[in-house]
Request: fold
Amino acid sequence: MRRRLMVAIVTCLAAASVTLVDTARAQAPGVSDKEILLCSYQPMTGKESTYFRMGKGADVWYKHVNEQGGVHGRKINFKMVDDQYNPSRTTVVVKEFVERDNCFAIANPLGSAPTAAVIDYITENKVPLIGAGTGAAKNLEYPSRYVFPLYPSYKTEGQDLVRFAKEELGGKTVSLLYQNDPSGKTHIEGVESVLSKYGVQLVAKEPYEKNELDVSAQVIKMKALNPDVHLCSCAPEHAARFFTERQKLGWKAPVVVVFFGQSPKVVELAGKEAVEGAYFSTIFRRPSSPDPQMRQFVSLLKKYYPNEEPDAIHMWGYAGAQVVTEALGRLPRETSKITRDALVESLETIRDWKGGLIPSVTIGKGNAPEHFLIREMSWLQVKNGDFEVFTPKWMK
Amino acid sequence: MLAQQIVSGLATGSLYALTAIGIVLIFRNTRTINLAQGDFSMIGAFVALVILEHSGGSLVVATLVTIVAVTALAVVVERLIMRPIEGSDWLTLFTATLGVFYILHGVAGWIWGRDTKSFPALFSSAPLSIGGTLISQAHLFNILVAAVVGGILYLFFRFTKPGIAMRAITEDPVAAQLMGIPVRSIVLLTWAVGGVLAAISGILLAPLVYVSTQMMDGVLVKGYVGAVFGGLYSLPGAVIGSLIIGVAENLAGGYLGAQYKVTIAFVLIVLVLALKPRGLFGGKARREI
Amino acid sequence: MDLLSARGVHVHFGGLRALDGVDLSVPPGSIYGLIGPNGAGKTTLFNCISRFQPYSAGAIHYRGRDLGALGPHDAMGLGMARTFQNINLFRSRSTLDNILIGMHARLGNPLAAMLSLPSGRRREGALRGRARQMAEMFGLTDVLDQQVVHLPFGYQKRVELARALASEPTLLLLDEPVAGCNEEETRELCEIVRAINRDLNVTVLVVEHDMSLVRAICDEVTVLDFGRNIARGAPVEILNHPAVVEAYLGETVAPHA
Amino acid sequence: MSERGWQITLTFLAFGALLALPAAIPSFYASLLAFMFTYVIAAVGVNLLTGYTGLVTVGHGGFFAIGAYTTALMAKHLGTSVVPGLVAGTVLAGIVGFGLGIICLRLGGAFLAIATLGFALAVGAVLNNWSIFEGREGIQLGKNSVAGLGIKDVGFYYVGLAVMAIVMLASWSIIRSGVGRAFVAMRDSERAAEAMGINLRLYKTVAFAISAAMTAAGGVLFAHHNRYVSTETFGDTWLSVDFLTAVVVGGQASLFGSALGAAFVVMVPYYLGELRDFAYVLNGVALIAVLVFAPDGMAGVLARLLRRVLGRTAREVAPVVDPVSVGRG
Amino acid sequence: MLSLEAVEVGYGQIKALKGITLRVSDGQIVALLGANGAGKTTALRAISGLLRTSAGSISVDAVRLDRLAPEEIVRRGVVQVPEGRRVFAGLSVLENLRMGAYCRDGSIADDLERVYRYFPVLGQRRRQAGGSLSGGEQQMLAIGRALMARPKVLLLDEPSLGLAPKLVAEILKIIRTINADGVTVLLVEQNAYQALSIAHYSYVLRVGRVVLEGTAEELKDRNDVVRSYLGRQAAG
Reply:
């Protein structure tokens, strides 16, 4: 009796393990006639959960595509899993994506450290990693053809910030408040690389931690050094704290904020007056732009996530997703011909594509540095609490 | 700059103080390190925000409703979760409040989402100048409230019957029971007072640190360090400890470098405890906890 | 020479003089009593001897060795063992473990013990054998594996004594051993202490309030009051000593004393 | 068979099952289990200090980090892999643990908890700000190998299993020796322990050092499992809190409990993960439920079950507070 | 009158009281004697409501006390002075006394006067912290604190524990005075002879049962019996 039971149990286990392991099919993982599985790790909970907006933005576009009938009749199954912005969770989540769920590609995930944690593994397994929300140099300069970075390196942006401070605002001395993480450190790298080129002096660089309650100590110190221009490599909440403190101390130097701090949240949290006149770099148009792509984004977001206020971070996901579906549309229709490498090649065929939120997408051949989805940056200025387009002299 | 750094540090420290008081209060009478104290404030901030949005902006109404709601929450936590395990070792009690922490975090994220929300400022953003140093009105008000609450609690513990009873329970709960002090009711009252403090703290902090599920994460840890600085049993100690941390942070941030700012509190607490194992105001050894 | 001697020991707690130049000399082989009113400094002196309390002036010598610089954990290695006023056992452990912990000073190389090296295991076996003997001597064999916290009071007292004697001390320090005991329990304990003194050749220093015990077993007694010596002598003399009666016993000595 | 005999038999059975398991499950799950082993190892270390010696630590994430970064730096600069990392990481953490033990000598209860918390956060701050540790940007580790042979998920599973077995065996050996008795004696009564000749300074610092070294072994494996270390993981208190939770939920002063508790803190969030915020609620409810219904931890419940199955009366009851003797204390 | 009828109390599976019946008549001092582990302290804890009874009833003047919360029992005039004094060390003497009167409303000035009359030393030290008093003074404070509740029945758990003989005599004398002023006393004592010297009636417990009772005279006459019951270890 007992033996029979044991046999039964062992058989069940074996059967279960076979079904679990052996889901290999004829075609590429994650692709069937009906569906394509794309996976994404997102900080849905935890300390960085406001960045989950990126996942929501991507989700909006895929939902819209599915409603229109999908890509070649295949619905996009966009699977988002919470990694809490904790790299050790990301490793588990991504392993699951690749080995258990057989995801076709990792699309529109978020986070510098989470991506750094899994980028080796993803590329070793030859899985495309498309449009990750990270500006850390390690990820953007990754020597693999499977990596498609979303937006320009923070290093490039850092260089642009200095140029803007010098050529637009005539600053000779600048101060920098930065987030003590890869984003901030990459910005510093960029800023410092061009100081001599533009003849600008960096008089103070002060870090802040993400869980820091206020930045008064840093602001007091920087104000005392009286720089001509202040640069802020800050996330929206911390940018808002900076503006509040700056207003309190009556510090008048012009401020330039990086694009990941560009959000209506800054104005909402710090108040109109505090932010008035500040410059922000951006990789998209402002949400209130009359551009039809932007209007479509705003209305789709309202449709699928009615509680969300449109924001640049939504656009990271949304715009990246648009590029992904464009590349999927360029793949052969036969399921048997769809492979991960084919997707890479398909992405590399995109030239001067204007069908999405990004004004123009051109993806080169080669490794990550050739693969940026977004290359251009533009500028905004806050006027009456709203973001207005600002065109620097050198762009005119 | 020195004076400004100190004043700003005091302002930040005062944000920690109410949380530190709440922690000390509950710890003294129940041996519970309440990890959920910050989340009580967080829930309070959200409740206040909801009321403000629906009641046409009356701050007084919002404050009162929030105090009632958070106090009720604290009472529910005591009755449903802490009372069944009363008398357990402090580590078990501590872990239970961790469970409360998870639950409240989850519930808040579930109901209100994970976005940071703004909270209407109670005061104009124009700062006050005191002898050349600037302090925002909101911070000044926060310091005043912390001082008033501290004063009220001091009088409460010194002169009222329930207040002295709370101290008696801190000393010896069994003897207190034998004297006819309704220990359970007083413990419940302690949690309720903790809830009131958390609600006030939540409303005061909301315009400054904005409203989100993790708004109190930074405050909470510093609140503990402040409480332990002061010896974990002493209310004035908790306030002074919190202020010391605020100032030390700003001085470290201003003179050593901002990367030392968040660290200094932890280095200080390790050093202080190594030299004074019961904190700065801990006095003589008490019953082992 | 005295086994234990204290000369001019001072201890101050803030402004309070707990010990104000106390002398004590315990001859080897004796059962020595230390009595006095509450707050006279008996327990403080006791703690100075067992090294739980530092002293500011004076000297305490044990077998001619100055104890001043030693810590409480050194006492047992020198051959002093103590019990506590309110039973202080390792409550979550068994009787056997309590006695084994009492033999800690004989553990040998801790590394060998931790890693279960052969030498460590041999020694552990020997200790366990010895602990069982100790338990048998105190009638604890039946409760060897029971958690001590569940044992009745009388058993707990005996476990504490067995634990103290497990290290084979030459001096046993007893802090109010019969507090909370009734007549019969007191008498039983007197028997045990006498047997320990006689059969195991252990010198005993006992702090006690119960005059029946003091009279029954002590060879000699020192009386303290306000941190000073006020009398010394055989129990019978002491119990009639006017200063002692005045300071400590009062007119109405308990009927059986 | 005696109760102890049963325990030993069951332990062997459990390890036997773990040895055979990778043959029956996809390598992904082997990897997940190996991840869990790193937590088990850390929890065993924490339990030695908190469960047995009674010194509550909310700072062992710091030692975990020391292990992880030691091996990560060695891997990056010297090209080493798991085994040299284990040796160096445990030794270094042991030394730091000894030092922390000295600083924390006079502390107990909540004060010790906060001091150790401060230690963990200070370690996190150093990792975040000292450039060789590369802060939140993190350090990537190469493919894992043992004795020059590359190992993948299943291979790493066995490495984790072996280290876990060694750490548990070492812990078991310490606990049942005179040294382990001294640890427990300090927990039950410091004064009486001192009177028994136990050198509190020495034994507390040694307990800290051993416990730190064990936890660091978990950290070394953790780094190699993730093949990545970053302050994003090690910079805050959650690792420390997870380890402590594992010990409380699993059962203080129980090796088996450490394993169960670590499984709880790894697997519950893992399986609830897709519920997002609701996962937090359920996790909290589960945690409280264990504390309310199993005051002596999951291991205590299982031990009672085992006894019931064996039909024996409770011989070693959990340390219940006996009101009468409390009155005397 | 305080009475216990067939009261049983258990810790887990162990029964500490196996059905004890005893009566304390108004105005009397009743002693509860027995070896360690006989159940004396358990009985007091049950009366004060710290422990739940599993069978039997406890009542004072025909009002049931079992199932009442400890504070309700104090309110009904049954107050305990716990073993080991347990004064609130960090509270002043006056605050300690105020806590004794916690259950009562109204002025406590008269009661303070009364306590200071019994124990003048407490009056002198009313501002001092309870923990700074000597052992004997703490025992006085513990008794004084209980008196603040205006007890009808005072339960005393080993008031002589750890006190010098002179102080023991003094405390016993005060207990007798308090009793003479109209407070009924239930006294638990290790030291049978001292207890018998002031008690009107006594009960002897052994392993959770009443094995002997009688007036002090009756018990003293049966000295040998008492001794055998009080003496034998209650081995479990």
The interface with chain B takes residues 44-47, 49-50, 52-53, 180, 206-209, 211-214, 216-218, 220-221, 224, 236-237, 240, 244, 247-250, 265, 268-269, 271, 273-274, 307-308 of chain A (CB under 8 Å). Residues 31 and 37 of chain A are 6 Å apart (CA to CA). Residues 154-282 of chain A form a domain with the Rossmann fold fold (CATH 3.40.50.2300). Chain A has two domains: 35-152+290-370, 154-282.
